[in-house]
From TrEMBL:
It comes from the Bacteria. SMART domains: Lactamase_B. Belongs to the metallo-beta-lactamase superfamily. SUPFAM superfamilies: Metallo-hydrolase/oxidoreductase (SSF56281). This is N-acyl homoserine lactonase family protein. The keyword Secreted does not apply. It comes from Pseudonocardia xishanensis.
Amino acid sequence: MFEVHAIRYATRDGLRGQHFLGYDDTWAEPHPTAYYVWLAVSDTRAVVIDAGLEPGSGPAGIEFACAPHEGVAALGVDPADVDTLVLSHLHYDHTGAAARFPAARRVVQRTEADYWTGPVAKRITRERWLVSEPDLATMLDPERLDLLDGDRELAPGLSVHRVGGHTAGMQLTRVWTAAGWVVLASDAAHFTENLVQDRPGPILHSMPGIYHAYDRAKALADDPALIVPGHDPEVTAGFPRSGPYSVRIA
């Protein structure tokens, strides 16, 4: 059994039109986005889901509260003791601070790695800007990498599930907790509203994959309230605080 924490390390202002596919009358309304990494910790394991960004990196407008590894340390876990780093996908805001977890094996779907290193991704400019070439070289170092072909149990009570949609090899993380099965959706669903309204965001690889990811997240979680979206500021309002930068999901 694991405890699961959402660590909010940064925030950025935005507009609804930047976060939901399709124009409507609410396009220009303010709609902030939050940046998270997640910690799943048991008596014997410390697993981080997504690495986040180093402060000062990324596009203009991101306001950092801490470095992701500092948020992990604030929960009493030494980043050097994290044994597994699950990368839900390889966009820059999920890979940039991976070096701060020096002992961790990196878990990536082979579909994701193959897509970003293959010949087609370089030609799709609407997606390519989301990936850091230096990060790719680091993430895909075979000495540290576990490439998966689909769903896999990483430890009793913790598994990953390939869904695609947002990216070619997007994966969910499912964790057994005292509250039941929690699903860390990461960017498979940026906001709870994506799931409630069945409305994708504009950054996507495959529209059918997006809807498959929504359905899979709902099937894997014991309760819709235990599906944790990847960038929703409301996550920190909906769960009890567990540290200076984090809330306890379960």
